[in-house]
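ok here's Rhodanese domain-containing protein:
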Amino acid sequence: MAGTAFSTSCLSSSSNLGTCWLVLKTHNARVVPGKLLPGNGRRRMALIKAEVKYVNAEKAKELVEADGYTVLDVRDKNQFERAHIKSCSHVPLFVENKDNDPGTIIKRQLHNNFSGLFYGLPFTKPNPEFVQSVKSQFPPESKLLVVCQEGLRSAAAASKLEAAGFENIACITSGLQTVKPGTFDSVGSTELENAGKAGLVTI
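and the structure:
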């Protein structure tokens, strides 16, 4: 990736198997799986440490328009439908929790009486299919700009994808709430920066 410095070391080798394990290190010490590479009758496994880029809205636009990044929106369905970047992909990090066990019912009622009523936030749970859904749409070498409304979910999603082997991930610092109208072509009933506003607080 651009702007990433590497150092190389050989962890182990075997004359019988002809195998050398290499580690390519970046400053943030994160590891993602590499690929088996043939060479001189030997097989080498490169483990590449990936780095998530955190950028502002203008730099994010540049990544999409000039560097070929695809926008991956990880917000819930409600915020996504209010406003989203045109031609983006949508895989929510959290999905609506419709479980009906007694504990969940109580928590959902408490949520709906406060966060749901005042802020229009749905009662959600982690999407168990998140990583697999992204993998089904994008290969690990894809350039992904992961976005959410405030930057927290996108950071969590980026961490999951990085651990799953994705090598080129960027996030907008503080999320779509910092994106000024006109920065991206958008679809929806409001501006990207206002998509998180709902419920009684908007009255």
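+1. Helices lie at 57-65, 77-82, 102-119, 130-137, 152-163.
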